[in-house]
Amino acid sequence: MPGTRSGALPRALRRAGLALLLLVTALSLARAPVSRAAEPNAADQGPGQPDGTVAHCFDGDTLKLRDRRVVRLAGIDAPELGRGQTQPQYYAREAKAELERLATGRQVALLAAGVNDHDRHGRLVAELRLADGRSLNELMVASGAAFFYPHRDLGPEFQERLRDLQAQAIHERRGLWAHLLSLPLARETYVGNRASLRFFPVNCPEARHIKPRNRIHFGTLMDAFLAGYAPARICVFWPEAR
Fold first, then answer.
1. What is the separation of C-alpha 96 from the centre of its chain, rounded to a whole number of angstroms?
2. CATH number of the domain residue 212 falls in
């Protein structure tokens, strides 16, 4: 073509072809379905409930906010205070007092700790963080006022933190561990259920129903807790308050 430098036309065609290819690719990606592997995990969604102020502590693991919401601290359990003719368990009063000291009148952020944010009793289940960023769930376990309570619905990283804090509290005999692990019951054997992550006294009738593939034996009470198992709510061995 007169007046056109040699090679200019092929280069222009190549640039036009590249632009067309990029446009087609972008349109294809826009129409493509989102991969489920790229979707965020429910346990990582962040806070699903508004902040609140703690009004009352029922015991060492459950409290009420001023807006009347009842919250169960995820991943932990504390000794029971008892009802009616049932005597309080050892360290139940101390656990409640510790949670009251840490939380009463304080504003807390409610963070999602797992898949479900309510339990079967209708209570919120969450990790509660104070204004300074500290986790009430972690503080209760670290002080030995409560123990780790594993659950399949909870995030694995959150559970690992609680389990590590419990191990430290056990080794340093903080809170309830000093007396509990000195009792004769601490030297007895226990049987755990891998499916539920709960353990029972070896003579508990319920333990006989554990399937062989799920059965695990612990030589001492401390072994069961360090393995990340929690006491079953049947065949309770926990001592009464002193």
1. 20
2. 3.40.10.10
Q: Is residue 37 part of a domain?
A: no
The alpha carbon of 94 is separated from its chain's Cα centroid by a whole number of angstroms, namely: 22
Helix (H) or strand (E) holding 63: strand 62-65
The answer to whether position 223 is within a domain reads yes
φ, ψ of residue 185 in degrees (nearest 5): -60, -20
d(CA 187, CA 230): 16
Residues in the chain: 242
163 and 225 housed in the same domain: no
Q: Which two tokens stand for residue 108?
A: 């807390």
Residue 242 lies in a domain: no
Is there a single domain that holds both residue 154 and residue 202? no
Burial of 176 (0-12, 13-18, 19+ CB in 10 A): buried
Residue range(s) defining the domain that contains residue 68? 43-169
Three-state secondary structure call for residue 114:
strand
Q: In terms of domains, do 162 and 198 share one?
A: no
12-47 confidence digits (pLDDT tens): 545 555 454 444 444 443 333 322 222 333 333 444
Cα three-residue angle 44-47-49, rounded to 5 degrees = 140
Question: Cα angle at 51 between 129 and 77, to 5 degrees?
Answer: 45
Contact (CB, 8 A) for 127 and 139: no
Over residues 46-93, the pLDDT tens digits come to 445 789 999 999 999 999 999 999 999 999 999 999 887 789 999 999
C-alpha span between 98 and 111 (Å, rounded): 21
The answer to whether residue 33 is domain-embedded is no
What global pTM score does this model have? 0.79
145/232 same-domain check: no
